[in-house]
Design goal:
The protein is of the alpha+beta class and about 600 residues long. It has helices at about 10-15, 40-50, 55-65, 75-90, 140-150, 160-165, 170-175, 185-200, 205-220, 225-240, 295-305, 330-340, 350-390, 440-455, 475-485, 525-555, 565-575, 580-585, 590, 600-610; strands at about 20-25, 35-40, 70-75, 105-110, 120, 130, 255-260, 265-275, 275-285, 320, 345, 400-405, 410-420, 425, 430-435, 465-470, 495-500, 510, 520. Helix 8 packs antiparallel against helix 9, helix 9 (about 205-220) packs antiparallel against helix 10 (about 225-240) and helix 14 (about 440-455) packs parallel to helix 15 (about 475-485). The chain is globular. The two termini are about 40 Å apart.
Amino acid sequence: MSDQQFEFDHQAFLRSVTHQSGVYRMYDGEQTIIYVGKAKDLKKRLASYFRKDVGSVKTRALVNQIRAIDVTVTHTEGEALILENNYIKKYQPKYNVLLRDDKSYPYILISQHRHPKLGAHRGGKRVKGEYFGPFPTAGAVWESLRLMQKLFPIRQCEDSYYRARSRPCLQYQLKRCSAPCVDKISEQDYKKQVDLARMFLQGKNEQVIAELVRAMEQASENLAFEQAASYRDQIATLRKVQQQQFVSGNAAELDVIGFYRLKNQACLHILFIRDQKVLGSKSYFPTIPNDTTDEEIVTAFVAQHYLGDDVNQDNIAKEIILPMAIEAQTQLHELLTKQAEYDVKLSANVRSERKRYLTLANTNADNALNVRNSHKESMQARFRELNNEFELSNPIERIECFDISHTMGQQTIASCVVFNNEGPLKSDYRRYNVVGITPGDDYAAMSFALNKRYGKVKDGDKMPDIVFIDGGKGQLARAEEFFAELSLTKTPLLIGVAKGESRKPGLETLILAGSHQLLSLPPTSPALHLVQHIRDESHRFAIAGHRAKRAKVAKKSTLEDIPGIGAKKRQALLKYLGGLQEVKKASIDELMKVPGVSQELAKVIRDYFS
């Protein structure tokens, strides 16, 4: 499938960009960050990329790949610089110089093994150990783990890898692990490093440095100069990390809620602060009934975001900064404290550092709402243009697009993405596991997907206005046959989207149902940009589902397909016989020696592999 994407509408985007300082992130068609930059004036800086006389070859190559941009507003250029570097380290964008509403947030875990492991964890806290977080994104966790690997030589490998070592791995050579697996460090010294890492994760940086200074002095007195030098290097690295800046303040654990309202629209922007660091942020856009006050919006948001059975109590910060005082503050304090099982403070009218955090959150709420509105206006204009191109009597309200993804006919996935005039309607996206067809038959896969989506629809009014079919006349003909068999008062306009020569964006050909007339829109047409956006989103969604399914199959053990073998018996077979290949070769008598395997089950296993 083509990875080409629709052209970025920079003019519509630039109309909404602020003149304030901040950081911007540029994305390619796969929503990968390809460049992070900072600016004293975001509008001027971003506009400079789209001049006709851009001289740099690198800049031209970058601009050609831009499919989206988002910005984070800061108070000063200094803050922009700090955030720029944080983002570069976190995302490793390919065009930068590199100096080497899901409630399930990720954590950092220190396990309770003999040699504790430092790692990432998401989901229920079933693994014994100490959890630190939550972090707003998995990227923030991995960035923290990369940093800690440089500071504390604690293992981060999986248990199976750790147990199998007979000599140190590469991480030991890079001085990022002390190789406890092969006793290159005493248990006492390893425990000391784990304790220091624990203190660091708790935000006790000064105590960590003090401990390292004492250890360095002790090593010097004992004439262990190599060890003293190692402690010295640890201290130097820690001091670099600890340099104070606004985005790493003194507040231990805060959620700061920024608020901005524009008529009947509002944005609430949360800054997540844990262990004196801003770990990330997220914007929310609630639906607001008419005549709702700002206080009612904030009260409802706090209640819905933090209270309820679906909320993990560990995700509730010990202090929540509100954008304004609210009448229900005392009541919410009592409810949150009860749910979290520790005191949760709600603060308004804050001062000093908290006031600066709140100002930053409010600024980003303002910016996020303006950017969203700009995107919405651009999307509505594209819908109108598409309406005009097809000369439809009624305005287009809903568009759906189908795509098929597979690898040589295996793990076939069909995707259905939905757009309304505000953009992607992700809550209505669907994926279908395609089964019961000849592998590689895209026509049959398309029929399967359409039947899954529309087969039980009885009311024509619930149909979309347009259905795009990614593919040529063959796929479109299958869609026409399917809808011809449905006896509905309203059927959607069917349009095939065929890739152009060399699969370049702008050369797509639209195929109209019925006449199969070919329609080529100008490369600069907003209607074509909308079609490309929808088609590419269906590509992305289908490919993501296919990759996930393919990865799941790759990880699946062939033993799972044998009737009567559950997880415990699989583990017993592999452990007792020494691996899958040995299980395959084992005789019935050898299989019966495995605890829990009867003669009947041994015959079933033997027959399966024969």
